[in-house]
User: Fold this.
Amino acid sequence: MELNGKRVTLGVSGGIAAYKAAELVRLLVREGASVRVAMSEAATHFVTPTTFQALSGNPVSVDQWDAGVANGMAHIQLSREADVLLIAPASADFLAKAVSGIADNLLTTLTLARDCPLLVAPAMNRQMWNNPATRRNIATLTGDAVGILGPASGEQACGESGLGRMLEPEEIVEELIAHFQPKPLKGRKVLMTAGPTFEAIDPVRGLTNLSSGKMGFAVARAAREAGAEVTLVCGPVALPTPRGVTRIDVCGALEMHARVMRLAATQDVFIGVAAVADYRPRIVSEQKIKKEDNPPPLIELVQNPDILAEVAALAHPPLCVGFAAETRNLAEYAEKKRRAKKIPLIAGNLVQDGFGGSANTLILFDEHGQQVLEPAPKLALARRLIARVAVLLENPHAPH
Assistant:
């Protein structure tokens, strides 16, 4: 459970998106968080306090003059008992009051008197979101170190479509998990590759591999959680982009190479997780090759560029990290690859230990030898890897 032991005070302001807050509470509790809900009076017109009490297992606060609070100061108690104050949904009215320091109800008073970080998930009509007053308010809140989660674009309750709808509960939980992760890469730029490449033979066929992209996407998420600005260049995969990550879709190795080399010199870290095809057909047929054609076609292969080696050979390269998936002799082949490409760190695993799955085993190889990471979900391993990357950025020769 990613939020085990974390104390979350969830503020629900008035708006139709308040119905999503019920599912949000359920997911937060499932992740191990202790949740206290505070509602504006307007929010009770959309969802009842009883709903949130049943889902959270805790009393729900609506009135700042709640006689059930021992000291009569609900806004103080709810802040002091929380690791984070999350307002979801955050209406345009709430945001405007938060900017001005207005404290005319429980939620706004709680926001002003808080003793913990504040995150807000805006939810409003697209015209309200695009209004210059709202844009100024968001800019001010960002400058005040308030975390802005979203909004998303899509269909809205008014029947229109556009930017302004609240993030889905699952997305907000992911953002909250990221909030609590250490930020050793804050201010850093990380460029990554992930997934397979597809080397065309004809318009419908090609050479590829079984890489799912799951490990690369986990590393991208972990890097973003650690505070980095992450760009992910990925081959053909059907995975959702981690929140906050810039994704560039490519197909073949030559396209991946071109995209990476265009960006590499401006990055602090390059992590090559993609299973780039070593070879591609020299000639790509313009038409579909028919099986009736005689004789059967002979496919001549040429070598693809070594993206990781070329990035490492730049005059001022980013810190380069490679991956090695082997079926045998992992230590021998991974260390040989690390030395040949002249990179400080490589993460290796045996294909049979988790290729394509949600869990894996990793061994990190650097100048100090091996560091074995015990079997774990790929996101947990990715966070361990990113932690090591952050250490090497500060001290390239740091021991394990």
